[in-house]
Automatic annotation (TrEMBL):
This is ATP-dependent DNA helicase RecG. It comes from Streptococcus macacae NCTC 11558. Belongs to the helicase family. RecG subfamily. It catalyses: Couples ATP hydrolysis with the unwinding of duplex DNA by translocating in the 3'-5' direction; ATP + H2O = ADP + phosphate + H(+). GO terms for biological process: DNA recombination; DNA repair. Residues 445-605 form the Helicase C-terminal domain. SMART domains: DEXDc, HELICc. The gene is recG. The lineage of its organism: Bacteria, Bacillati, Bacillota, Bacilli, Lactobacillales. NCBIfam families: PRK10917.1-3, PRK10917.2-2, recG.
Length: 671
């Protein structure tokens, strides 16, 4: 038996059926065996008196009224009947499942899985269970053309055929003993077919540890390699010149800024290779620290390059660097530049007549040759893929690397999650910066808000209005934004110039709109969430976010950070009628604090890691069962033991070390 065999070799599964499983990333029998459910439905029968409002549960009872199907609207219907449990009679409704009527017989004992409505003493049914079904049923991620039952049937077939016996153990025995973990074969079986809840929880604990341990092994190996590299640049920067430049600034650095700069300069001066993450809240002044680090590289006779995700941000940084260092030669490099201008920039970069370079991903193209590259900085590092960041690092002769992120992540989590990097945090705002005043209003108060906006437009204020977020639907996002733009235009008529920006636009079009907004040619910019992090429009002082309860705290905070960039008082207005307590709580927290790290902590508690470490903020892998926040204690323990193993010379001589490295390669974690 071969676990690496194509899925089509599994008994009862032909090539056509096997091909459907490719949508789920399942190509081999091993992929199938390790395709774990993301949750279990608890089908244990409960008494209605033990149920909480809104709880999903199974209840049993006797059918005491005939089933009726009531039709309303196009293809919409409700099947209803009553069930008696003890002395209680419960109303049951199934929506748009009229075919279930034949299964409901007067006097018949039935088990219904559904959602309990306490106020109405009723249940909205999800499915009718047969009594033979287990207390717990796995729920797998599926795709179009593949049902839950098809996944379960295929997995059962693989287990019945005995393929599980070929699954090798991938954790050292010493760790299984230390943490009382199930062996891999037992855990894999219990993930799919647990005897009971306790066994499933033990299996889950083992698989979570396995995922997080290998993640941490990867980070700790990278960290050890970075720290052991003596081929890093020891940049002999001129401390007096850097100090002089700091003193010439029109403001003083905050303590957090100074500490971060000290960390970076210390790394640059050492012979070890710098690999540091600089994270700070919106408006905390990361850019000036990055600029001073670039200046330090210049005083050491080396070039420095800053890569940002968009042309408008590149131009913004280029302008600010030229204002800060008028005595230096600074070059801009973007793919949108005219050929002759671009060629002149490339020649100047190659012959060393340029001191600093700012650009988009154009900085890592093959045609770019640096003269003496000492420092590379990636802004909004999550916007670039690992390969893009790696290409940037490989330019020049092993330059020092600084990455920046404006997504506040709680420090303890950042240190663990970005384990291969050193982390510096700027967690205080510059003195004199006016905090953004945040207000939460209901939809019924919009007239008053619009009336206030009219007054603000007359006073030359510029306004962002963010349309409601429809997750996973760019089409609906766009419809919402267009409808909102029409509403705003109708209200303001000729008194304000209104423009629309959305994700379907080409980059050039979006950048043209942002440039027009920066130049004051647009009064009100209606937009989806595509407004760039870091875009600096000092005159934009008002941010209106429609249906704000659809956004997470971190996202709301990032949007709010688009204003408050000048010396005028800025405002964020959250328009929302939240239906849940969690939604109301998010609105209340936003009005009470502008501290991004505090909000990040709250977001972690309320929404888990998705909002902070979601796809848009990638750089953290997506785990199959582990959650980087919920399972933080396991993550931290995995970090400690991985660090211990990687730094232990005896482990590296042991055959177990080779096995661990081989497993990392199989998981495609190490090249």
């Amino acid at each position: 038996m071969n676990l690496q065999a194509p899925l089509a070799q599994l008994k009862g599964l032909g090539p056509k059926s096997a091909e459907k499983f490719h949508k789920l990333g399942i190509y081999t029998i091993e992929d199938l065996v390790l395709y774990y459910p993301f949750r279990y439905e608890d089908f244990k029968v409960k008494s209605i008196f033990d149920l909480l409002d809104g709880e999903k549960a199974v209840i049993t009872g006797t059918v005491v009224t005939p089933a009726n199907v009531h039709y309303y609207g196009f293809k919409r219907n409700r099947l209803s009947f009553k069930l008696k449990q003890g002395e209680a009679v419960i109303a049951i409704s199934f929506f748009n499942q009229p075919y279930l009527k034949d299964k409901i017989e007067l006097g018949k004992e039935m088990a219904i899985f559904g959602k309990w409505d306490q106020a109405k003493s009723s249940m909205v049914g999800i499915k009718i269970l047969i009594q033979a079904e287990a207390d717990m049923q796995p729920v797998y991620h599926v795709a179009q053309g593949i049902s839950q039952s098809a996944v379960i049937k295929a997995i059962k077939s693989a287990f019945d055929a005995g393929y599980i016996r070929e699954l090798p153990e991938n954790l050292p025995g010493i760790l299984l003993e230390k943490y009382h973990l199930l062996d891999r074969q037992t855990a894999a079986r219990a993930m799919h077919f647990p005897k009971d809840l306790a066994e499933y929880q033990q299996a889950l604990r083992r698989i979570k540890f396995e995922e997080l341990f290998y993640f941490q092994m990867h980070l700790q190996i990278l960290r050890a390699e970075n720290r052991s590299q003596t081929n890093g640049l020891a940049i002999s920067y001129q401390k007096s010149k850097v100090t002089e430049k700091i003193q010439s600034l029109s403001f003083s650095l905050t303590n957090a800024q100074q500490q971060s700069l000290d960390d970076i300069l210390s790394d640059m001066q050492s012979g070890a290779h710098m690999n540091r993450l600089l994270q700070g809240d919106v408006g905390s002044g990361k850019t000036i620290i990055a600029s001073l680090a670039m200046y330090a590289a210049y005083t050491g006779g080396l070039q420095a390059a800053l890569m940002v995700p968009t042309e408008i941000l590149a131009e913004q940084h280029y302008d600010s660097l030229r204002a800060l260092f008028p005595e230096l030669s600074i070059s801009l490099l973007t793919s949108g530049m005219k050929a002759a201008v671009k060629q002149a920039a490339l020649s100047a970069i190659a012959d060393g007549s340029v001191d600093m370079i700012v650009g988009t991903h154009a900085l890592i193209q093959e045609s770019v040759n640096y003269h003496k590259l000492g420092l590379v900085i990636t802004d909004e590092q999550h916007r670039f893929g690992v390969k893009q960041r790696q290409l940037f690092r490989e330019k020049g002769e092993n330059p020092d690397v600084l990455m920046m992120s404006a997504t506040p992540i709680p420090r303890t989590l950042a240190i663990t999650a970005f384990g291969e990097m050193d982390v510096s945090v700027i967690d205080e705002l510059p003195a004199g910066r006016k905090p953004i005043i945040t207000r939460w209003v209901k939809h019924e108060q919009l007239d008053r808000v619009f009336s206030w906006l009219s007054q603000q437009v007359k006073q030359k204020a510029q306004i962002y209005i963010i349309s409601p977020l429809i997750e996973e639907s760019e089409t609906l996002d766009l419809k919402n934004a267009v409808a909102l733009e029409e509403e705003i235009k109708a209200y303001f008529a000729a008194s304000a110039h209104v423009a629309l920006m959305h994700g379907r636009m080409e980059n050039e079009e979006k950048e043209a709109i942002m440039q027009a907004f920066k130049k004051g040619k647009i009064d009100i910019l209606v937009s989806t969430t595509v407004i760039e992090v870091g875009v600096n429009v000092p005159n934009a002082t008002i941010m209106i976010i429609m249906d704000a309860d659809r956004f997470g705290l971190s996202q709301l905070h990032q949007l709010r950070g688009r204003v408050g960039r000048g010396d005028k008082q800025s405002y964020a207005i959250l328009v929302a009628n939240p239906k849940t307590n969690a939604g109301k709580k998010r609105m209340q927290i936003m009005t009470k604090t502008t501290d991004g790290f505090l909000l990040a902590e709250e977001d972690l508690k309320m929404r888990g890691s998705g909002e902070i470490f979601g796809i848009r903020q990638s750089g953290i892998p997506e785990f199959q069962v582990a959650d980087i926040v919920e399972d933080y204690p396991i993550l931290e323990e995995a970090r400690k033991v991985a660090a211990q193993i990687v730094t232990d010379k005896d482990w590296r001589k042991d055959k177990r070390w080779n096995a661990l490295v081989q497993n990392l390669k199989q998981k495609e974690i190490l090249d």
